[in-house]
Design a protein that fits this description.
This protein has 261 residues and is α/β, with parallel strands linked by helices. The chain has 2 domains: 1-100, NADP-dependent oxidoreductase domain (TIM Barrel), CATH 3.20.20; 135-261, NADP-dependent oxidoreductase domain (TIM Barrel, Alpha-Beta Barrel). 41% of the residues lie in helices and 10% in strands. The protein has helices spanning 8-11, 29-43, 62-74, 88-97, 113-116, 119-126, 166-171, 173-186, 190-199, 214-221, 230-240, 252-255; strands spanning 3-4, 48-53, 78-84, 102-106, 129-133. The chain starts with a strand and ends in a 6-residue tail after the last helix.
């Protein structure tokens, strides 16, 4: 199965990181079709199973983007359509042109925006799968990070995220403590409980924890063995309601690329 996020020049609207050039954004239908053709050649395949628009381009109506994908689906070059970090309104507009199969947005035990901004409700109503990225809070919910954790500014831009500032990592530790408490009763780890919590929310929610290490992959898969009861979930929500999460989830530059309209 081929699941593809378009290259940076497809979705960035302004600004950028060293790894993401400032191109001004380009989600025009002709450009979408061009980069899909290039991707098919690079991947040496005749179709892409799931193709996401990684960030909503404010300069191109989402109906035009969905229309271009619809054409590519008709040609058999793309099988399924997805959006990343799109608002509920945008999701509905796109879905009306070409049905969406997946929405990818940050969602975790301590980042709950999709519960409150209508995105999860739209997915449930329209029958769209939801794919939470950063289900482990960019690694914070594993319980292996604290205020002393350092990020290499050359290779890891988490250090620019307010939630990862030392004072906020210290202030947010009660959230990790909730996961640790549950993990002890389940013979698991905080990371496994965090993933299990997501899996327990809805059957159409499929978290995608990222890792570069086999031992972390094995640990993440162990979440399937963590069974959270109704009482467990209620207790976790009760305890979470007593804490305040400190710090924005990404830098101002990255947050400017999030569709909230």
């Amino acid at each position: 199965m081929t699941i593809l996020l378009p290259p940076p020049e497809y979705f960035l609207k302004s600004g950028g990181h060293d790894n993401y050039p400032d191109t001004g954004g380009n989600s025009r239908p002709d450009h979408i079709k061009k980069v899909v053709e290039e991707s098919l050649k690079r991947l040496q395949t005749d179709r892409i199973d799931l193709y996401y628009q990684h960030r909503v381009d404010p300069n191109v109506p989402i109906e035009e983007v969905a229309g271009a994908i619809k054409d590519l689906i008709a040609e058999g070059k793309i099988l399924q359509f997805g959006l990343s970090e799109a608002s509920a309104k945008t999701i509905r507009r796109a879905h009306a042109v070409q049905p969406l199969s997946a929405i990818q947005t940050e969602y975790s035990f301590f980042h709950r925006d999709p519960e409150h901004n209508g995105v999860l409700a739209a997915c449930e109503e329209l029958g769209i799968g939801f794919v939470p990225w950063a289900p482990l809070g960019e690694g914070y919910l594993t319980g292996t990070m604290d205020a002393n954790t350092k990020f290499d500014p050359k290779t890891d831009f988490r250090g620019t995220f307010p939630r990862m500032f030392p004072e906020n990592m210290k202030a947010n530790m009660p959230v990790v403590d909730i996961l640790r408490t549950v993990a002890k009763t389940k013979d698991g780890t905080p990371a496994q409980v965090a993933i299990a919590w997501l899996l327990a929310q809805k059957p159409w929610i499929v978290p995608i924890p990222g890792t570069r290490r086999v031992d972390h992959l094995t640990e993440n898969l162990g979440a399937l063995n963590i069974q959270l009861t109704h009482d467990d979930l209620l207790a976790m929500e009760r305890d979470f309601s007593k804490v305040t999460v400190h710090g924005e989830r990404m830098s101002d530059m990255h947050m400017q690329q999030i569709d909230r309209n």
